[in-house]
Amino acid sequence: MKLSEYARQHAVTYRTAWNRFKAGKLNARVDGTGHILVEALSPVKRKEHVITYARVSSSENKDNLQRQSERLRDYCLAKGWQIHEEIREIGSGLNDKRPKLLRILNNGEATRIVVEHKDRLSRFGATFIETVCSKIGCELHVINQAETETEDIIQDFVSVITSFCARIYGKRRSKRNTEKLIAELSKS
Question: What is the mean pLDDT of residues 148-171?
């Protein structure tokens, strides 16, 4: 198999596989075209590592976050999956800089990530996250799939409107806070 396929199977970067080849740690050779071919061994079976991921948009929904996490736990137990990590995060589904989700995707330990709805993972771009998961050998398991494409599109539309409203009202709030600060400084 090619070195890139070896890297994919072992859930390492291509650079790590290259370093192993250069250090002589792989049973590999260079063919006539310059490709590095690794002798195929039986694929490494990774130890199962199940992570549940629950998310809500704001701290006002902490109770919902707890209930969501409990539903994920109950689902995994019903399936017979042992949970290794239960991740709870507060942040917008439109925010692509959620530290706990990024940590899960970066460390590559997970063999299965369980979420209640696709939008709990990400409002948009869930396909990109699914692709990353498949590259690191992780199954993304969404419990409640959208019933129809129309339902999915309507939810995306509502998400966009909500996001824009939050940005507008957030700017107004920051403007009021700035005005208050200026008034306080003027009194001094």
Answer: 70
